[in-house]
Amino acid sequence: HLLLFYTPFYINKPFIVTKGLKHNKLMAKLTFFLAVQILLLAAVSSIGDDGKNFARTIDRKLLGLHKKEKLTHFKVYWHDILSGPNPTSIMIQPPVTNSSYFGAISMIDNALTAKVPMNSTVLGQAQGFYAGAAQKELGFLMAMNFAFKTGKYNGSTITILGRNTALSEVREMPIVGGSGLFRFARGYVEARTKWINLKNGDATVEYSCYVLHY
User: Fold this and answer.
1) Four-residue CA torsion sign, 95, 101, 102, 105
2) CA dihedral of 50, 54, 55, 56, whole degrees rounded to 10
């Protein structure tokens, strides 16, 4: 009786082992086949790739560029603070000559406020640098981002790059780009000095900004 009871177990066991071996061989073949296909695809895709096809044309609608452009105007007040324990403008390269500040470079993280007083609502920061770029007059190369951090435009920026003849009543500089709600921005700013301390160089400048964007 014991022999009859265990006989089916011994009969089926070789069958199970054989079936498992066949399954493993099949999986190995499939794995090898897939690996060969992947290698062939990689080889084909690399043939003739000389770096000329890294860019492609896409539909403007994917980035919302089919919409009508908007013209936005706003004013902010730029506070250039050189004095005190926490200056927001620091000269990192002294000028060649003090008469025109030619060669000087200053990094800035200036507050942008809603009104002239520095204790008015802060709308964002002007971050970048200005450099003395004129030998015979007080002229600066301005390269800075207006990074907004309140209201509708929180997280958005505009980028200003241009020539600033600081003693002129009105200085016009281009807006060359932006991010967030100001993606693909273009336009210009008008800068007007509202206040300056001739002893320490602190100044407040009004920036009237005209921005075309989607």
Assistant:
1) positive
2) 80
Is 121 within 8 Å of 150 (Cβ atoms)? yes
CA angle at residue 190 from 127 to 182, to 5 degrees?
A: 55
For residue 24, the enclosing domain spans 18-45
Verify that 41 and 82 share a domain, yes or no.
Answer: no
Helix boundaries (H) for the chain: 2-46
pTM across the whole model: 0.75
pLDDT tens figures, 22-53 = 667 777 777 877 777 777 766 655 555 567 77
How many domains would you assign to the chain? 2
Contact 194, 116 (CB under 8 A): yes
- Whether residue 161 is contained in a domain is answered as yes
Cα–Cα nearest to 37, from 25, 47, 29: 29
**pLDDT tens per residue, range 78-118:** 999 999 999 999 999 999 977 789 999 999 999 999 999 99
